Amino acid sequence: MATIRQIAELAQVSTATVSRVLNNDPTLSTSAETKERIFAIAEQLGYKRQRLRRQKQEMQRAEAEIGLLFLATADEENQDPYFKSVRRGIELQCEALGLKISKVIRGDQFSDLAEVSGLDGLLVVGSIEVGDVLEAYPNPERVVFVNHGEDQHAYDSVHLNFEGAIQSAYEHLVQLGHEHIGFIGGVESIHSLRQPGEFRRSEEHRYRAYVKMQSRYHHSYEAVEWVEDWSSQGGYEAMKRILAKPHQPTACIVASDHMAVGALRALHEAGVQVPAQMSIVGFNDIELAAFVLPPLTTVHAYTELLGKTAVNMLVERLEGRVAPLQIKIGTSLVERESCQAIQ
Known about the structure:
alpha/beta, Rossmann fold, 3 domains, six-stranded parallel beta sheet, 12 helices
């Protein structure tokens, strides 16, 4: 079996340097070329092959430079539990795997995109035009799209299983006897980096799943309203429009908890009792959902897991995976007091 002394002699370095390189000593100051030479010689000599392979991967991860491209501005991230949770998942997994986040760029910082070309990998969070991303970073095999508004079959992507989420919410309401089920959705837009402020509308995943469930159960009733900014104010105004319709739903699925909070306020002001007169289901399971009156039945989205999974996918690419991969993260329905059976 090869020894550290033999490796040191062939690499023309000290045994201490070989030992520190093979053990990925983060305090060691030596060139990447020297490290690669030591690993190559150790591999040729058959030095503890499995351990060596693992240590080499750890070294390469530690030296890789990863970039984050966020659609959200810093203020939007701080105010939105979704973006904060995805970011936390990314940072936790990078730390666990020894990866370094070298650059964070936001959708309103287009001029900084020139700095991403030299990165080893890029995580894109939010609905940004794929062409714009690849123009700035023309390495599609080292990009992971996180919760993009459109399905990305040619690239690595990870997003929530919206179809399964809405199916669980809809079936829950059907089991409670509801047939007149409305929907409040947020407008989904794909944003341009080359032309800041420009965007195009795409089909919202939750709405597509809602339509499929209506068809499955042969429900002809439809009350659909859209919110431009996914806000509580938007949910409030959307519910007021629904309440102005001649025939109101007995239940409503709302595409985010923030909008559901606004919808609850509109129902309260109109004297519509929840859940006696209308049941409400939200989406995301933000902290506030458990504390509104009544506590909100909602779909729990594992947003931190989105970030962690994206990092794992990027590492797989850096370590040789060739085929693009698309992953859906499941959700779970959290039943609280905003839904009840038809009386």
